[in-house]
Amino acid sequence: MSPSLFRLLLIPLLALMTLNMAGQQNTQKPDSTVFADSVRVKADTLLNDSTKKAKKPLLEAEIKYSSEDSLIFSIGQQKVFLYDKGVVNYQDIGLTGNYIEFDYNTRIAMAAGAIDSSGQLTGRPEFTQGTEKFDFDTMRYNFQTRKAKIKSIITQQGEGYLHSTVTKRMANGEINIKNGKYTTCDAPHPHFYIALTKAISIPGKRTVAGPGYLVFEDIPMPLGLPFGFFPNTNKRTSGFIIPEFRDEQRRGFGLENGGWYFAFNDYLDVSIAGSIYSRGTWGVKAVSQYLKRYKYNGQFSAQFFMNKINDDPSSISSRDFKINWSHSQDPKANPTRTFRASVDFATSSFEKRQGTNFGNILENQKNSSIAFTKRWPGRPFNFAANLNASQNTRSKTISATLPSVTFNMDRIYPFRGKKDDGDYNWLQNIQISYNSKLINRMNNIGDSVFFTESTLKKMESGFAHTIPISLDNIRILKNLITITPGVSYNGVVFPYYIRKTHVSDTLFYGNKNYITDTIHRVTYAHAFSASIGVSASPKLYGMYTNKRANPKIIAVRHVMSPKASFSFTPDMKGLVPDYYRKVPTNSSIGANRTYEEYSMYAGQMNSTPSVNGKSGSLSLGLGNNVEMKVRSKNDSTGKGKKVTILDNLDFATSYRPFSPEFKWAPVTMNARSTLFNKNLQIQLSSTFDPYGLNEKGNRQDVFLINQTGKLFRLTTVQFSTGFRLQSAAGKKKDSNAKTGGQTDIDKGYENTQEMTDMYEQEGGSVRNDYVDFDIPWSVNIDYSFRYDKPGYVARKTSSVRMSGDISITPKWKIGLNSSYDFVAKELSATNISVYRDLHCWEMKIGVVPFGNYKSYYFTINAKSAILRDLKWDKRKSWRDNF
Predict the structure, then answer these.
(1) pLDDT tens digit string along 350-364?
(2) In whole angstroms, what is the distance from residue 864 CA to residue 192 CA?
(3) CB 353 within 8 Å of CB 388
(4) What one-character-per-residue DSSP string does 288-299 give?
(5) What is the rounded CA–CA span in Å between residue 82 and residue 67?
(6) pTM of this prediction?
(7) Rounded distance, CA 569 to CA 713, Å?
(8) Residue 13 burial (10 A CB sphere; 0-12, 13-18, 19+)
(9) Which run of H or E residues covers position 734?
(10) Tens of pLDDT, residues 730-778
């Protein structure tokens, strides 16, 4: 073909087709084969002809294409052929494949892969449009009608995957499927799927299918479905929550956690679910999650259950409820105001009857708090309000502070000017601050009467504020001794006061000849007090240096930190209001009559603002720290490595010279050490009392040395130790965590205890489960011992807790959690767990072999949340043991 004829044929073709050829490269040598009516050219040899005017395109936009091998233009057929990694882009549509054929007349593109020498399909074509993406064997796509016919398609829809033998894609994006598969397995040949005879998929919304059946490992199951409905969106949508079937001996047959999920928007959702059992027990649960980006996030849940012991209508019913609320504020939301909440409140029997978490069942203490703080920038003021509750499920009591409000002013120097040169006189060193606190509290109230009117009447209330004025610390003897003189104003609001009245010298009320009246009247008491404090805290160093050649222990250093402080408050009687009274205590008259002195505000939450007489206290302490420097085998520098032998060994006591009795406080000792690269932790604390006991075993104001010749009486000893052993992979993970890198364990379970969470054991639906296979094995052992002997009778507890797990293969993990009580001589709280990763499925086995919570479960289920109900489990509930 002559060059002139070639040009005459090529220019009309370019004028008709809006094919963008700019910037394309031909990386391989073209095939030498040509067609009689076609032209094979390199991608970079086509140039626009400036002598011809471009015609109006027949399509809405340009079709851009490229290939790594070559392009073939068939002028007679008006087709373009792309070989080896061909790419065609049209608006938001992308088409790739090893072979692509485009027909200009019909505007149909055909894409297919290539068969290699082994007979396998390579270069599997791929189609994308917006966020939609799928691959296939072959496809014919019409750019004008936007319809397509596809063979052997695989496309991801939400969390699931659609496989189809014959597929039609409509202009609106809907996909009609014949002989398809729906699965959550991402393998090219899925391990399981739901076979669909026909279906329609609406991308980003849902897939609706006709009759189908379940297939495992290519084996059809005798489980048919008349129709199917699968969500195709990653966004939350409202819908029905399918209940789970239960069979228990105690509560009978039941349906659990069935209800409705409300997805109001991307920032708020609510689920309301109910449970009902054949023997009369029923319950409701509401859970809500909320989020406001860069502001706050939280979760709230409330549960209520009406319990029936058996199906007898006259049987006693009981009520259980539980409230959980967690709220956290983003640090960037407001730098001057914070609000946080952590509420965990339930009836004492809730966890035993309805609990789903094994750790919560064994826990005897629940704590709740709600806190609000506010500070003013550039000003020394701050405000805080707190609601706190502490619940003991064993004693069935609650102590609460409702609320505690404080308003404080940080210390200021009122006599300092704006210009601060650092040189102050005594007047400029005067500092003043302000502290106030309002408290309403209840202590050890039975949880069954906590919300009654009688409980509110028992609430203790009080308001107190103080204005301390002092000189800045005066330091002498090279800062060895610190002197702090000061004066303060104290004021207290009391809701009532007491009055003791002498009635008769012959009539006695109990062993008293007076009566006590409580006058419920709000009064304000105040007083000034002066004080001076002196403290000293020097440090003493001792050093031993090994002078041998190349010693393993280079040096040992001992640091002693003695501490002594004394505070004194003089008697302000006559200068401040007197809130102390006297009442006769015997029938004698005159000089032989004895009196009892009491405060009008005795027994209340806040103490009397004025002190009756002078007071003072001397505090003594001694701290010890021992370290040594050792040389390792690989140390060539000779500097050695510092190792802590004793983190601290501290002793403390105090002496009150003006106290009428028990002037010396017990001596306390605390010690702590971490050894073997902090894998072994040891803690020891004890209390030594210098006073003896009377015949009833009560403490009396007589020194023990005068009774028995011994200096101290041991009253409390508490010892605990724990160590962790793990494989090298686990140590590497801990190192990454210390340096701030996120490890796999940060994303899910931290130990076997969580992996065997009884919430999952009792049929709860925890999604996004994660099992850490990066630590082949780990062992944790903790031992605790406590000895108490306040009188003649001693009490002690001694137990060891063991936990660990081992990954016997990359897919198998076995865990153990147990404890042994040496006093009761029995095992307790033991559970064994087994986990098997089955790729798109998982298997869990949990066993509590003995005890009150003896139970077991076996569960095999699909991992995906979409098919959360596709599972089989067998279990025996621990509730049947009660």
Answers:
(1) 877 777 666 666 667
(2) 12
(3) no
(4) EEEEETTTEEEE
(5) 6
(6) 0.64
(7) 31
(8) middle
(9) helix 728-738
(10) 555 555 444 444 333 233 333 333 333 333 333 333 333 345 555 688 8
